[in-house]
Amino acid sequence: MSTARNNTKRLKKTFRYLEGILYLLKTIISERQFLYVSCVLVGVSSALAVILLKTFAHSVFQFATYVDTLLKLPFSNSILPIIGILLTVFVIKKFLDGSIEKGTSQIMIAVAKRSGFMPRKQMFAQIITSSLTVGMGGSAGLESPITITGAAFGSNFAQNFRFNYKDRTLLLACGVASGIAAAFNAPIAGVLFAIEVILADMSVTAFIPLMISSATGAIVSGVVLKESVLLNFKSNFTFDYSNIIYYVLVGIAAGFFSIYHARMFRKIEHFTSHLPYKIYKKAFVGAGMLAVLIFLFPTLFGEGYESIKSLANNDAATILENSLLEKFNQNPWIVLIFVGLTAFIKSIATGLTLGSGGNGGNFAPSLFVGSYLGYVIAKFIELIGLKKLPIENFTVVGMAAVLSGLFHSPLTAIFLIAEITGGYGLMVPLLIVSSISFAISKRYDNYSMDIFTIADKGLVFTSDKDKNILNKIELHTIYNNSIESVTVENSMYDVKNLFLTTDQTFIPVVNEDRSILGIIYFKEVRDILFNHYKLNTTLIANEMKPALSVSLSENTGNVVQLMDENHLTELLVTQHDKLIGFVTKVKILEVYRENLKNLRIE
């Protein structure tokens, strides 16, 4: 115990020493130069997190494979995910305050609503929980936790050294880029992922820090991680123009499959997370259902990258190993049907994994189902005697197609597959399948699956830049809490006095507990206020109009939209359905103009 305590003290002392050196360096070199140094350090930190995650997950997969080989028990792989998810729930409940942020959408919320600040616990929470979940067989991916961890490293580094909002957000994105680059040894894909998915608006100068971090992550990962841990392919991929029509078919199928996967995943995750049980029982029930699926479809275990390599090598028979249909692994039609069913079941398995309390993401599942889909299409065309197609080509371009459709990130998909295949021989089919899949998916789902449920609420940046700026404005910082109101028991004389003694052009009508009953506008009662007879005979209840109001937690972009739709220049603001003030369009636009010049990342 004393040895561990001494080691902890030495480690803290070392970090303080390094921190002191960095503070000294910051005073010596320029701000831009220190930003570049910071990009390298964030890149190294993110890469080390990737190495830890990937090594653990791969080791557990090898252990599970060894147990299967030794015992020949097809159900052994089903036990580990239950243990992993229960351990994940235990860690979250006991050590992480009972909650953990999942999905890349949390990074975008941090950029859009929290000025690039991410909790310090995210630097280790994702590593621990996703290692337990995915490493022990949960049917999800490590890339989403990797990106959150990288973003947390970048954000907290920036906070520690007092970077401004622009550079803090940029370092956050650098952590994301480094994480993706390290996970796949794909630096270009890392940069593009940060641009397409995380940063809604940026300038050319932001490319340099992103490239530095991404390259650093790829270098560290490439030096330390074994090649077998990474998803890569050694085949010599070439493109035959006579197969264009079949690649178009893959793009179309992937577009619709992306829609299916996203919607089925959301439905299953929602169902599992809302099971009427206590936390551990819910985890056990959800993980139990996952265990049944893994028993029936063994390649649902973990990330599933090994099975992708098998398909790319046209060795799909291995997919049936340790399954109930193993004895049929030489029947090409049964193998094909089994592979196709596994692709459709993957979204259910991932939904159960995350809904029951596990931690992971959908990046790896998108590559998984994409490779399976590409294989099924190519093999089916071959089996019916239409044409013999290069199976490995369709397996890898299928990954790009589904990744593009699910995450609405065609450039990331194209260059990720190009990098992990070791060349650009498939660039033309990658362009075809990614663009078609993206176009179809975008037609039916405006937002990618990770931000679908929060984009319309204004919680993240989207391609609508004006709304991005507005949503960054917090309503509680701009509303006016000095508001006068009346009740139905008051007289129109009271209304007249308020109009004479305040700047308000409207008077809310409330009851005793401040709930809004209606509103009176000056322009609509002007004749009454200056007519003595009407003033005496008119009741407030007869003159008030229905009142529109917004909650204090509402996004400012939605507030402006509501004003425009109803031709209003002000709206009442409520909290817990009680009137607390009002907000004007003039004030919103004033703050909008102040924020406009600060939004772009330079």
From TrEMBL:
GO terms for molecular function: chloride channel activity. InterPro entries: CBS_dom (IPR000644), CBS_dom_sf (IPR046342), Cl-channel_core (IPR014743), ClC (IPR001807), ClC-type_chloride_channel (IPR050368). It is a multi-pass membrane protein. Residues 479-535 form the CBS domain. GO terms for cellular component: chloride channel complex. Its main location: membrane. Keywords: CBS domain, Chloride, Chloride channel, Ion channel, Ion transport, Membrane, Transmembrane, Transmembrane helix, Transport. The chain crosses the membrane at residues 34-53, 73-92, 170-195, 207-224, 244-262, 283-301, 333-354, 394-418, 424-441. It is found in: Membrane. This is Chloride channel protein, CIC family. It comes from Paenimyroides marinum.
